[in-house]
Structures are given as C-alpha cells and as structure tokens.
C-alpha cells in the first residue's frame, strides 16, 4: 500500500516472525482497524505537537492549562469511537517514532498512546517498534532518557497482561531479542512486570494467567500451590521465568566484566547504571517468587555476582542495589519450595541459605564495611545503613533456628553435634556484625539493628524463665552473657550529641528522640531478662557520673549529656521490674535505695541547669516518690520541694522546666500529701506568690495544676477547719476580686471572647482548688465554696453566650456537687436554666451529665432542683436534632442527612432519653408530676415512645423501655410518693397504663415484628427482655387479657400463632421465650 511506514514480515530465527517498521517519509501515518495497515493522516499533526509542547511548559500557566484541556477533550473523544481514535493514535505514533522530535513531545505522545484503547493490530505494531527499533539503533550515549524508557516498559508490561499468550505467543523470544538490543528496556520491563504482580489488585485474573505461564504451567494448571511441582526439578527445558532470570544474571555478569576492563571511562559510568538496573530487577525477582522457580544454576550464579557487588571499589549506587537485593533474598523462600514459617524462612539446618549467609558475612568482614570503631572509610553511609539492615535480617532469620536447634539437641542428646556447631558459628558471626552496627556512630546504622536486639532480648527473657539447666541456659550458649556488652553500647548511644539543640520539632532532632525511645524500650527488656546485672550496671554508671560531678568545672567533669543518660537509666529501670508496679517493688532493694540517696545528696540540681537534666531529675524523683516515706529520707523531701519550687523548678527561666514542674509538683503532692503537713503554710504562701507574680509566665493549664496542688495541701494534710478556711480564703480572694472587676467592666458583652477567657480561667481555678475538698468538707469550707458558687452564677448570667464560660461553669458545678452537697441544689435551677437556653450541639452532652450527676447524687432531693429544667431540656434537644435534620438538601429538593450528622442527631436524642431515665431510675420522678411538668406528661411519654419505636439504635430503644418499666414499677406500688408526701394519684397510674396498652405496647410489638428486627442480636434480645418485663408487670396486676388485647392491637400477631399463647406464661423468662418464638415464626413466615 501507499503507506508512509512500510510494514513487512521478517524471519528472525527458526519459526519466528516479527513485524518491523521502516520510516520512509515524515507524512503522518494513520493506524487503522483490521484490513488496513496505514492510511492517510489528518493534517493536524502540528496542532497536536503544539498542544503537547504547551502542556509541558510551566512558564505560561494559562496556556499550559488550556493545552491540557484540549488534549484531555481530544483523548476523551478518541475513546468514544473509531473515527476519532484512529487519527489520534496514528499521529501520536508518528510523533513518538520521530527521534528528531523533542523528548517531551515523544514522551507526551507515548503517554497518550498508553491511555488509548488500541486494537490488537495497533498494539502489535506499537509493541514491535518498542521491541526492535526503540533505542536499538542508538549508541550507549544516545539511549532514550530514563523517563521515556520507563514509560515504554510500562506499556510493554500492560501488553503482557493483556495479550499473553493468545495474542503474544512469542513473549520469551521477543524479550530475549530485546535484551540483546536494548538491555536497559528489557530489565525495566521485567522489573515493572514483577512489581505489578505485587501491587496490582485490579487485574488479578490476568496476573494469575501470566504468572502460571512464566512458571511453565498451562492455562488452568496448578491451581493448588501445595500440589505444584517445580518445573526446573523435573524438566530439563527451562521455564520462561528461568530464561528471563538467566538473561538478567548474564547482563549483570557482562556488565561487571566490562566495568573491570573500562574502569574510569564513560562506558563504565553507563555500565554502572546498567548494573544498578540489573540488581534492582534481581531484587524484584526475589520479591515475587521463591528461589526454586528461578533455576538452581541461575540462582547460584546470581548469588556469586551479588557477593562481589558490594566490594569497596564498587560505586556506592551499585553497593546499595546489591545490599538491597541481599535483603530481599534473606526474606524470600528458600530453594525448597514452600519452606518457612511466620518466624523465619529457614526451618532446617540443611537449608542452602545458611552457607550463603556465612559467605556474605565473611565478605562483609573482609571488606570491613562495618568497622569495630569509628566510621567506615570504604563505603558511603547509605551503604553502611544497608549493611546494618542486612545484618538485622540475617539475625532475625537465624535466631529462631538457633533456638530450635539447641532444643532439638537437648531432646536428642549427642546427635547432630556438627550441625549444631555450624548454626551456632553462623549465629556468632551475626552477633559480631550486630555489635559493630549497634555501636556505630550513626543513629540510622545503629537503629537498623534494634529489631534484632529486641529479638535477642526476648530470647534472654525466655532463658531467665528456665528453672532447670538446659542447653539454652548453659554458659556457652546463653544470650544473657552478652547483656553487659549491650548495656555498654546502649549507655554510649543513649547520650545526646554535644551539638544537639533539643528542638524536637526539627525533623533531625525528632529522629534522635525516636531512636532513644527505641533504645529505652530495649533497655526495659534487658532489665526484665537480667535485673541484677542491669542494676549493677546502673549503679556503676551512676557512681562514676556522680564522682565526676564533684570535679566542678574541670575538663573531666561529667557532661550534661552523660548526666541525662545516667538519670534515664535510673528512670526507666523500674519498667522492667516484676511484679508491677516496678517502682514500688524496686524500692525494697537496698542497693537501689542507696543509689537514689546518693543522687539526692549529689547536688545535681545545683550543678546542672540544663532543662533536660532538671526535668528528668524531677521525673525520676516523682516516679520513686515512695522513697520519701522512710523517716531517714524526710529531709531529702524538703530539699526536693525546695528545688522544684525554686529557680531550678517552678521559677526556672526555661518555659519547658516551669511547665513540667507544675505537673510534677502536683504528682508529688498527691503521692506524699500525708507527709506535707509541716510544709503547708510555706508551700501555699510560695505558690500563691508565684501565681500572683508577673515576672514569670505560666500556661493556664500549668497554673491549674498548682491550684489543684494547693487544694490538696489544704484539704488532705489534716489542717483544722479554721486554718483551711483562712488559707482557702487567702488563695481565692484574688480570683474572686478579679471576677468582680471584670464583671464591672463597661461593655462586657462587646468582647465576649477576651472577657470570657479571663473569667473562665478564674472559674476553673476555683474548681481545681475544690478537688481537695471532695469528701464532705467542714461547714466553714462549704460556706466559702457556696459564696464562690454564687459568684460563678453571676458570671454565667453576664456571659451565657461564651462557650468557654459555659464549659468551665459546668465543670465547677460538677465539682460543687461533690464538695458542698445539697447546698448546691439551691442555685442549681438557675444554672440549668441558663445552660440549657444557650447550649449548643457541642456542650448539650455536658448539660445532660449535670442532670444525671444531680439525680445520682441526691436521689429524691434532686426532683425540686431539676423540676423547672426538664421540659426545656427536652425542647432544646428536639430543636438541636431538628436543626441537623434540615441542614442538607438533596438533588430532588428532599431533606437528606449525611451519615455523620445522623450519628450526631442520634446522640442528641439519646441524651433526652437518658436524662428522663435517670430521673425515674433515681426516684426523682416527682419532677415529672409537679405543677410545672404535669401538663406536659403525655408529651413526655410520646417522646420516649417514639424513641422506643422509631429509633433504630437498640441501645436507645432499651433506655426508653427501661424508662416505662421503672416508672410502671414505681407508680404501681403504694411506696412511691410525690413531693407533697401523698401516694401517686390513681389518675397518673391509670393514664400511664392506658398509654402503655393503647400506644406503647402495640407500637413496640409492631416494630419488633418488622423484618429488620433480629431477635438473635444481643442488643435486640435485651429489648425483648425489657418488653417482657413491662408485659409481666401489667399481667400481674390486671391479668393477661389486657396484655393480649394490647398485642393484638398492633395488627402483627401472626395467624399461625395460638391466640392464647401468652395465657400460660407466669414470669418474665417464660414470657420472653414466648415472644421470641413468635418472632421466629415471623422469620419463617
């Protein structure tokens, strides 16, 4: 045909036919459908090329956007039909094939081709060009750039998944030819395909088909992995997978050979890139399949090449790629298919991986990539990190094998001695490299082997649990013999660098901190494995450090980093001590107590002013605060309190120290409050002065810690009521006066946020002070707190619209319920009224909690306090729920509630039902029949009934049913009474009974008979039980006829059930069983 690209068939080997292209002119070819090869192209190649160029030119954003939009539109049109698609495919193909075009144009054209749905012939033509012309005519210096090559590899990978084997039967032959002409593309195609096997979840069937073909199975063969037999072990013909892997290994071998000949030349640099690509491809093979599928000869040759891949004279990129391949090989299955378990891929001492590991370790030792001391001089730090990762993997693989081998030897004494020696020798080689890595002066290298260190610590713990001598616990085989060496390295690595800035928001510093966190976790495991050895080490380290602190400013004095590391040893030691709590257990050890005494008496606080040292010192003293309970240590307590409240603590110049000391001071007071009676006056006066000082800035949360500490000092140390009142008044007076001053400010409501923050802080301070008086304080203290309650009520009246004010007021009232008892019931109605009126969806929950806490605490007394607030609360919940219900409009104009808003709506509805249930459950029912709420009683019943019938949440349903059941129990007995002392009127009980029989029972039974009700669900089953309780209560007083009529009124009593089915039920359990049987028959019908 008169096409501008000639298509012809050529022979390339016996029985092999390929399609080649020969570009004759620059006229645009058009890839057509079946029956045509090429046709005349449309005359808009230049426009498409311009759009490609503009879409890749960020210099003009507007032009770039417009060009991208045009391209997207044209591609979308091309996908709609053949008429649009064929010209676009042909133009893109022409632009891609023209090597004289700019690279970005060719890449854009190839990317567009990858997005089009090409037919079989078009894919064959594109594939043939990529396999036999793309890059094959170029020299090594003129190869296509990496990003263009990678895109071509991705397209070939897509074609493999789509066309193999039916439409691409010669996959192996084509890729073999590609390896000869363009090895880089061959390697990248293999790597991309293997990675897609692991990452692609959308084309599972295609991937499974290609996998089977590569492994030598026919379609549909070997569906059961357990029945698969390795093709390479039974058939001399290599599988496609073996051939591809063999080609990859040969490329790497030739590249290594070429590098040795052309060292230092440009060609050598090209070979380096080829070597890296070949090594990454080998790694991809290891990631995807077991070694047995790659062929023993190929695997052995590749491992021999990998042994020389990390030689010191190799470029760092090659070393990194080699070590990465070794890491992947370590965790891949062995030459024995199907071997391995969740602990290790090595399950046998005969595994061929073991001698290979030994060879790798010998080479690493020979090349000195991990020196015993100092930094590596033969490898970049990235390569050293990879070596450490490899050592870590080796150790994790061999450690379980070592333990199994020793146990087997114990069970079969005298057998396999040579094998045992070989495994232990290999493990010792790993340990040698492990200690080098752990001791390396780089956290990335040392941190890489911490998982192995944790695994060794686990083995040490298992050794410690052995009660009888075994091979595992013999001196020669014990892992615990290495604990001193690990501790020495740990202590060295735990010290911060001298130039460390302690700015943990910085990424580098954050990594340092995470590394030390991992080290401390390891240390705790070591303590658990050998507490005595670790204690000896800690005492020696502390003794040396404390001795050096006496040198003052001399050059030999202990550095801040050393002191901090020593304190960290002491601080974390108790975490590994059993039984828990370790801090209490270890204080029974005289050696540890003596060490704490030495630290106290050393004067570290006065010698070291660094924030990390001070904070960790106080953390340690607070953690072991029971140390001060001994009479011999009371004097040390005074020194500690003096330090923590002075310029080395609460008044320190560094904000971090001040903030942490506020919290630690509170913890110290809580744990030792019984010992602080002689220090109360000094401590309270000092803290009050500190809080009033304007020289030091404390965060609001930190000051609240101090107020709580003052409250504990006043309320828990045994002061007389008069002294308590005097000190409490002294502390509260500034805040009360501050509140009054703010309330008297003109235009208070004009700046709600500013004034609200100030007032809320004062309210919170008083609330935290009251924590020391939670258990029925004296009348003097109650009077002071009651006066504060009235002032807080004034604040709420002034700024009820402030969210922070309402929040702190709720906290304050909750504290007063515990502190001043029933005196809080007098102002409670005013608090509830204001809080309900101004509450939002964010704080209505806390208002409900205030209701519930009042009912729980005061029982019948609470009815008068909540009386006027019950119905407003129900209305508020209803309005908030309806606001969510109308917040979203659907496409058709109907109201739709997003799931998150529906969940919030349910939670608000549940609050209303929970409050009503608490009122009834705690005998505050008089609030429902009071003059205020009696007229709304039926409305209240209907609200709860809707919850029991219409709400789908079974928890809400049960709450509503319990409300009616408990109300029926109260009003159905003569013991229930109203606030005036008389019995509940017959009118209320009759009204409740009528409501239950005519409305609730039929409605609930009707909802239970619906298909979406599953009586087998645990929550729904509880609802059936509650419903049965209600029916039994009615039956016991009014007979079964009333119950039967109520159930029949639902219209859902099935015709295949006996109408007198309930007549024989005598208790709740029997009635519940009857109801369940009826619900089961619903399911059958």
What does this structure look like?
It contains 46 helices and 4 strands. It has a two-stranded antiparallel sheet. The chain has a two-stranded antiparallel ribbon with strand order 3-4. A hairpin with a 6-residue loop joins β3 and β4 (38-40). The chain is globular and about 105 Å long. Mean pLDDT is 84; it is low at 1-43, 222-234, 336-340 and 974-982.
Give a nutshell description of this structure.
The protein is an all-alpha fold and 1085 residues long. Helices cover 65% and strands 2% of the residues.
How do the strands of the widest beta sheet line up side by side? Answer: 1-2
How much of the sequence is in beta strands?
A: under 5%
Which segments are poorly predicted (pLDDT under 50) over 5 or more consecutive residues?
A: 1-43, 222-234, 336-340, 974-982
Helix content: 55-70%
Give me the secondary-structure category.
mainly alpha
Q: Please state the average pLDDT score.
A: 84
Q: Per the principal axes of the C-alpha atoms, what is the gross shape?
A: globular
Number of helices: 46
CA-atom Rg in angstroms? 41 Å
| Main sheet overview | 2 strands, antiparallel
How many β-strands, per DSSP?
4
């Amino acid at each position: 045909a008169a096409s501008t690209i000639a298509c012809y068939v050529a022979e390339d080997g016996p029985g092999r036919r390929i399609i080649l292209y020969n570009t004759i002119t620059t006229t645009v070819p058009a890839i057509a459908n079946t029956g045509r090869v090429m046709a005349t192209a449309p005359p808009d190649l230049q426009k498409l090329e311009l759009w490609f160029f503009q879409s890749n030119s960020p210099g003009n954003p507007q032009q770039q956007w417009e060009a991208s939009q045009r391209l997207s539109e044209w591609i979308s049109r091309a996908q709609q039909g053949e008429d649009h698609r064929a010209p676009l495919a042909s133009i893109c193909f022409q632009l891609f094939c023209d090597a004289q075009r700019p690279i970005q144009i060719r890449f854009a054209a190839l990317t567009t081709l990858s997005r089009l749905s090409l037919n079989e012939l078009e894919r064959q033509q594109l594939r043939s060009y990529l396999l036999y012309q793309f890059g094959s005519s170029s020299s090594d210096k003129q190869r296509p750039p990496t990003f263009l090559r990678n895109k071509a590899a991705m397209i070939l990978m897509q074609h493999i998944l789509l066309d193999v084997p039916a439409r691409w039967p010669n996959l192996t032959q084509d890729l073999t030819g590609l390896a000869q002409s363009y090895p880089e593309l061959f390697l990248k195609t293999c790597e991309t395909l293997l990675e897609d096997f692991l990452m692609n979840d959308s084309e599972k069937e295609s991937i499974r088909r290609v996998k089977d073909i590569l492994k030598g199975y026919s379609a549909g063969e070997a569906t059961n992995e357990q029945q698969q037999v390795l093709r390479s072990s039974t058939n001399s013909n290599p599988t496609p997978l073996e051939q591809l892997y063999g080609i990859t290994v040969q490329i790497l071998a030739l590249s290594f050979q070429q590098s040795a000949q052309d060292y230092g030349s440009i060609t050598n640099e090209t070979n380096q890139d080829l070597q890296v690509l070949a090594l990454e491809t080998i790694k991809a093979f290891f990631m995807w399949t077991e070694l047995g599928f790659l062929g023993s000869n190929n695997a052995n040759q590749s491992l021999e090449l990998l042994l020389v891949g990390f030689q010191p004279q190799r470029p760092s990129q090659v070393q990194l790629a080699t070590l990465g391949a070794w890491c992947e090989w370590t965790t891949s299955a062995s030459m024995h298919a199907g071997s391995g378990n969740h602990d290790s891929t090595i399950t046998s001492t005969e595994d061929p991986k073991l001698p290979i590991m030994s060879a790798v370790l010998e080479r690493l030792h020979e090349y000195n990539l991990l020196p015993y001391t100092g930094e590596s001089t033969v490898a970049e730090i990235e390569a050293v990190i990879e070596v450490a990762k490899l050592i870590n993997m080796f150790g994790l693989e061999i450690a379980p094998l070592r333990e199994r081998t020793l146990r087997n030897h114990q069970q079969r004494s005298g057998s396999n001695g040579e094998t045992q020696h070989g495994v232990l020798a290999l493990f010792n080689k790993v340990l040698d490299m492990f200690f080098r890595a752990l001791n390396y002066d780089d956290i990335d290298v040392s941190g890489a082997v911490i998982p192995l260190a944790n695994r060794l610590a686990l083995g040490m713990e298992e050794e410690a649990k052995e009660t009888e001598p075994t091979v595992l616990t013999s001196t020669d085989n014990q892992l615990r013999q290495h604990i001193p060496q690990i501790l020495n390295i740990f202590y060295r690595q735990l010290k911060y660098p001298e130039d460390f800035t302690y700015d943990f928001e910085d990424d580098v510093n954050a990594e340092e901190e995470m590394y030390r966190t991992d080290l401390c976790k390891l240390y705790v495991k070591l303590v658990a494995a050998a507490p005595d050895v670790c204690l000896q080490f800690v005492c020696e380290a502390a003794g040396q450090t404390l001795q050096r602190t006496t040198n003052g400013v001399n050059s030999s004095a202990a550095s801040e980093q050393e002191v901090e590391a020593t304190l960290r040893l002491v601080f974390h030691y108790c975490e590994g001590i059993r039984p828990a709590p370790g801090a209490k257990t270890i204080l029974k050890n005289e050696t540890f107590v003596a060490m704490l005494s030495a630290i106290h008496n050393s004067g570290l606080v006065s010698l070291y002013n660094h924030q990390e040292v001070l904070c960790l010192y106080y953390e340690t003293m607070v953690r072991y605060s029971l140390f001060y309970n001994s009479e011999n240590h009371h004097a040390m307590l005074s020194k500690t309190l003096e330090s923590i409240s002075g310029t080395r603590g609460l008044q320190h110049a560094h904000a971090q120290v001040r903030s942490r000391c506020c919290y630690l001071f509170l913890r110290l007071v809580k744990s030792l409050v019984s010992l602080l009676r002689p220090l109360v006056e000094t401590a309270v006066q000092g803290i009050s002065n500190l809080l009033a000082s304007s020289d030091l800035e404390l965060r609001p949360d930190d000051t609240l810690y101090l107020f709580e500490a003052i409250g504990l000092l006043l309320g828990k140390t045994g002061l007389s009521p008069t002294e308590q009142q005097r000190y409490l008044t002294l502390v509260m007076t500034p805040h009360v006066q501050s509140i009054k001053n703010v309330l008297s400010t003109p235009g208070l409501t004009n700046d709600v946020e500013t004034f609200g923050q100030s007032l809320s802080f004062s309210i919170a301070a008083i609330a935290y002070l009251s924590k020391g008086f939670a258990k029925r304080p004296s009348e003097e203290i109650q009077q002071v707190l009651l006066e504060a309650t009235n002032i807080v009520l004034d604040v709420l009246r002034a700024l009820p619209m402030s969210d922070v004010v309402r929040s702190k007021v709720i906290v304050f009232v909750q504290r007063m319920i515990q502190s001043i008892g029933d005196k809080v019931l007098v102002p409670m109605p005013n608090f509830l009224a204001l809080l309900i009126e101004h509450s939002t969806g964010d704080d209505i929950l806390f208002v409900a909690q205030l209701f519930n806490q009042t009912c729980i605490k005061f029982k019948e007394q609470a009815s008068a306090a909540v009386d006027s607030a019950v119905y407003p609360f129900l209305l508020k919940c209803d309005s908030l729920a309806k606001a969510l219900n109308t917040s979203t409009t659907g496409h058709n104009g109907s109201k739709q509630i997003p799931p998150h808003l529906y969940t919030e709506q349910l939670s608000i509805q549940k609050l209303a039902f929970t409050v009503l249930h608490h009122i009834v459950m705690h005998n505050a029912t008089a609030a429902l029949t009071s003059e205020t709420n009696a007229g709304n009683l039926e409305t209240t019943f209907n609200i709860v009934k809707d919850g029991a019938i219409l709400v789908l949440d079974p928890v809400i349903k049960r709450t509503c049913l319990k409300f009616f059941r408990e109300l029926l129990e109260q009003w159905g007995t003569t013991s229930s009474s109203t606030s005036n002392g008389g019995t509940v009127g017959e009118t209320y009980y009759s009204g409740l009974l009528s409501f239950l029989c005519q409305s609730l029972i039929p409605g609930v039974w009707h909802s239970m008979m619906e298909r979406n009700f599953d009586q087998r669900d645990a929550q729904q089953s509880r609802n059936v039980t509650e419903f049965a309780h209600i029916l039994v209560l009615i039956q016991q007083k009014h007979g079964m006829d009333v119950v039967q009529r109520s159930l029949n009124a639902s219209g859902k009593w099935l015709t295949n059930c006996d109408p007198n089915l309930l007549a024989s039920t005598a208790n709740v359990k029997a009635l519940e069983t009857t109801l369940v049987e009826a619900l089961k028959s619903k399911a059958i019908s």
